[in-house]
Amino acid sequence: MTVEREPRVIDLHGDEIQQVHHAYGTNGVILDVEVALSPAVDWVHCTVLFDTYRGALDFGIAAQAPSLDIFLLSTVEARFSPYYTAMRDRFPADRHAVFAMVSPESMDDFSALAASHGGTISVAGTEAELLAEGLPPAYECAFNHTTLQALKADRGWTYLQVAYAQPFDPAVVERHLEIFGDDVLQHQDFARANGECGTFGILLVRWKGEAHQYELIREIESQGGCKIFNPHVVTIEDGGMKTIDTQQIEFKKRSDPMGLMNPGKTRGWTADMAVER
Predict the structure, then answer these.
(1) Could you read off the pLDDT of 104-118 as tens digits, one per residue?
(2) How far apart (Å, rounded) are the C-alpha atoms in residues 188 and 168?
(3) What is the pTM of this model?
């Protein structure tokens, strides 16, 4: 629904949603959403342990193979272990972990790949089976849940989002481990989209003030091989988009001509664009 003196309802289909997707409520009010579904899968939630974080990263890269049906794939270094108390001995403090949700049909190949990379599977079960054992599902141990797990015990942490160049080079992460020490804990997520691999990081960062945070961002990007998506900013562009999405701004001119929706959230909209209706 548009925000006008006489509101209109606009239907968007397929790729047309890119005009409003990730626009943070800057260009209209969503009334109804239809989502395509696929058959449900009773995923096997797995934890694979490695002696080195490089071993975990190499396995993450290999597990992106199209032949494996994996819904979630995340590496978490050993220093996260004290915050994952619900994992008990399944994620010991001297091992690095990979969390994954694997289709039952891919489990044999997944297990063989883990063994070939020196990994040991410490958890493998459906969500219901894990909950019955008092263990968290894999999705509670990945993505930004890693940050939340740490914040439960220590409010001195914050985080930064990272996008890595493809093909992903694990040496970038190894370099960061050496440079930043206990100020930055490493966590990477692996994904496939439209047949292409992607690697992202949600780094746990010790908060030492705004100046230190921006110094850290500059230093990470200066090392090459990645770009920071800063979650500590107001506008869409300064966080993740990096550029102004002109199609979203053009849609805003139609759907919110007076500029009332979430003002100041996007740099692409300026006050002089607003018109009286």
Answers:
(1) 999 999 999 999 999
(2) 11
(3) 0.91
Residue-wise pLDDT for 12-46, tens only, equals 999 999 999 888 889 889 999 999 999 999 999 99
Tokens describing residue 190? 């692996």
- Residues 98 and 55: their CA atoms lie apart, in Å, by 10
Distance separating alpha carbons of residues 175 and 162, to the nearest angstrom: 15
Residues listed for the chain? 277
Strands 96-102 and 226-229: unpaired
CA atoms within 13 A on the CB side of 251: 23
In 3D, which of 161, 107, 109, 97 has the Cα closest to residue 135?
A: 97
Per-residue pLDDT reduced to its tens digit, 145-172: 999 999 999 999 999 999 999 999 999 9
Write out the DSSP string of the chain. ---SSS-------GGGGGGTTT-TTSS---------------PEEEEEEESSHHHHHHHHHHTT-TTS-EEEEEEE-GGGGGG-GGGGGGS-TTSEEEEEEE-GGGHHHHHHHHHHTT-EEEEEE-HHHHHHTTPPPGGGGSTTHHHHHHHHH-TTEEEEEEEE-SS--HHHHHHHHHHHGGGEE-EEEEEEETTEEEEEEEEEEE---HHHHHHHHHHHHHTSSEEEE-SS-SSHIIIII-S--HHHHHHHHHH-TT--SSTTS-TT--GGG----
Distance from C-alpha of 79 to C-alpha of 93, rounded to nearest angstrom? 7
